[in-house]
Structure formats: C-alpha cells, structure tokens
Design goal:
Layout (H helix, E strand, L loop, with lengths): L8 E13 L3 E7 L12 E6 L9 E4 L2 E3 L2 E7 L3 H7 L6 E8 L11 E7 L7 H9 L11 E7 L8 H6 L3 E6 L6 E2 L2 H11 L6 E6 L2 H14 L3 E4 L15 E3 L11 E3 H4 L2 E3 L6
Parallel strand pairs: 8-9, 8-12, 9-10, 10-11, 12-13
Antiparallel strand pairs: 1-2, 1-7, 2-6, 3-4, 3-7, 5-6, 13-16, 14-15
Bound molecules: flavin-adenine dinucleotide (FAD) and FE2/S2 (inorganic) cluster.
Length: 278
C-alpha cells in the first residue's frame, strides 16, 4: 500500500509575510524555528489556519521556494481557503503537514528540459530550475539546457515571471489575450519554438497547470513519443492516502498498472505518462 513519505510530519509555523503577486495571487512565507532539510521541487504541504473562513479540510500547495528557515508558497486565490491564507496577519499560526508527495524526477542533461507552466502551475518549477542548475539531485545543468514555457490567460496571471527569468533560463511567455509574449497558449508557443528552432525538438516535457493544458500536453507527448511528467493539482481531502479523494487512472502496462487508480497525494503528484493517463 502506498504510504505518506517517512519525512512528513505535522508542525506549527508562523506567517512571516504575505506579499501580493500578480493579479490575484500572493507569496506566503512561513517561518519555522527548526528549518527543514532541502526539499525536492514539486513536493507539497497541506496548509490550514485557525482563522475565520478557513475550511475544515486543509489545502495542498507546492513548495515554491525554501530559504533558511522559511517556506514560501505561491498561491492563487480560488476560494475560501486561499482567500483566508492571502489575508493572514503577521505572526498567525499556520498548521503544516508535509513534505508530501514525490517531487520531480531528476532533470538530467540527456535531452533539453521543457517546463510547461500554466498560470499558478509555475509554482513547482522555481526550485526545479534552481536545483537543476545547482546539480542538487544529480546532473548539473546549464541554463541553456532548460526552457520554461509559461502560459496564462493574461499577463497578470504570469506570477513572478521576472524572478523565473532572473534564473537565467530561457523563459517563453504566452498569453491567450496577447498581453505578454506569444499570442496563444503554452503548447502553441512550444510548437512555434520547435518550428523556429528556438526550442530543441529532442526534449523531455515537465508540465503543471490546468487540466485541459495537461491533457493536451499528454496528447502531444504521445504523438511525438516524448518522455513527459505531469505534476497534478487534483482536489485533495487528506494528502496522506486515507480518503481516496485523489484518484488518477493508471495504464495497465505502466509501473502502477496492477491497480486501476493511483493516489495523487502519495504516488504523485508527479506522474510519468508511461504510468498514468488523464
Ligand atoms: C499537489 C498540489 C499542489 C498545489 N499547489 C498549488 C500552488 O502551489 N499554488 C496554488 O495556488 N494552488 C495550488 N494547488 C491548488 C490548491 O490546492 C487549490 O487552489 C486550493 O485547494 C483551493 O482551495 P480554496 O478553499 O481556496 O478553494 P475552494 O473553495 O475549495 O474552491 C474554489 C473553486 O476552485 C476550484 N478548485 C479548487 N481546487 C482546485 C484545483 N486543485 N484545481 C482546479 N480547481 C480547483 C473548486 O472546484 C471551486 O470551483 C495545488 C494542489 C495540489 C493537489
Ligand atoms: S487526498 Fe486523501 S487519499 Fe489522496
């Protein structure tokens, strides 16, 4: 039976700051006296706060950045839970369970790494790029080995894009309304990059974003026979494998094929399309 990771625990943190980010987002910093060991990008935490309006069930968020004793989360306000987190006051206690999930696999230099982010789906990529540049989980990549294709409906949903660009990798912005970068979605921008030769066709895809974007990424990767990993942002009840609230259909021939569904929270949130299908 898949189980929560051995390093996961529940602990209390303090809100160190909440800064606005983009049109409807915030960067939430949580401080803990005892810093956590370095975390793999795309692992996540369940957050809850005992403040008016916060739902009974904690909400999952990818770790965005980790600096000294602080954990940073890039959060888009969607409903009650995210609104309450965005409105936290300095010093408010936040209950944290994690780190949970698997995180991205090693991003090695065998093929160009194309990271496809849709809106708030950029959150698990910041540390992924930092870690690949530093060689923290295997091969040390050059900035020229990676491209971030960052798509959103409009410019205001390209959260913190300047900070991604400051990492030195190629960042291709794409907006549905043409307010920034390529006029169209992230996959159209990728295809154009392939056509112009700006993005190598010999690549691996890593994607996080809304479901339609992830389904289209899976289709494209299968058509082109590219290796592809998706970080899924399913709705979650518990985050630790108990509630069965996060099923992901498996492929019979894949590594998880002896059961029709994987659990996104404990076997993901990152899956290879060799193992699951959306
Ligand atoms: C592993 C994981 C990592 C995540 N990382 C981040 C992150 O880094 N930053 C971030 O902003 N969000 C992230 N999310 C999504 C985040 O958990 C949800 O946006 C949040 O739970 C919404 O809570 P709420 O109470 O504000 O909204 P609710 O009141 O629960 O919902 C408001 C509306 O949003 C919809 N909704 C809620 N959750 C999702 C979802 N996951 N996908 C699509 N629609 C949804 C609901 O159906 C409803 O229409 C992540 C989710 C997972 C599973
Ligand atoms: S969220 Fe409860 S089993 Fe995955």
């Amino acid at each position: 039976m898949p189980a929560p990771p051995a390093d996961a625990r529940t602990f209390l943190t303090e809100c160190a700051s909440v800064e606005p980010c983009g049109e409807d987002g915030v960067i939430l910093r949580l401080k803990r006296d005892e810093p956590l060991p370095p975390l793999r990008a795309a692992r996540f935490f369940m957050l809850s706060a005992d403040v008016p309006g916060f739902p009974t069930i904690p909400r999952p968020f990818s770790v965005y950045r980790q600096e000294s004793g602080e954990l940073e989360f890039l959060i888009k306000v969607m409903g009650r839970g995210t609104r309450a987190l965005a409105d936290l006051s300095l010093g408010t206690t936040v209950r944290v369970t994690g780190p949970l999930g698997n995180g991205w696999p090693e991003i090695d230099g065998d093929a160009h790494a194309v990271m496809l982010a849709g809106g708030i789906g950029s959150a698990p990529f910041f540390m992924a790029i930092e870690q690949a540049l530093a060689g923290s989980h295997g091969s040390k990549l050059e900035a020229s080995d990676m491209t971030l294709v960052y798509g959103a409906a409009t410019k205001g949903f390209l959260y913190d894009i300047e900070r991604f660009a400051a990492l030195g990798v190629r960042v291709v912005a794409a907006t549905d309304d043409g307010t920034d970068g390529f006029h169209g979605n992230a996959l159209e921008a990728l295809k154009q990059g392939w056509e112009t030769g700006e993005i190598p066709t010999d690549c691996r895809l890593y994607a996080c974003g809304p479901d339609p974007m992830l389904r289209a990424t899976e289709r494209l990767a299968r058509e082109r026979e590219l290796e592809c990993w998706l970080s899924l942002e399913d709705l979650m009840g518990c985050g630790v494998g108990i509630c069965n609230g996060c099923p992901v259909p498996t492929l019979p021939e894949g590594a998880m094929g002896d059961w029709p569904n994987a659990k996104c929270c404990v076997e993901g949130p990152v899956f290879s399309i060799a193992d699951v299908t959306l």
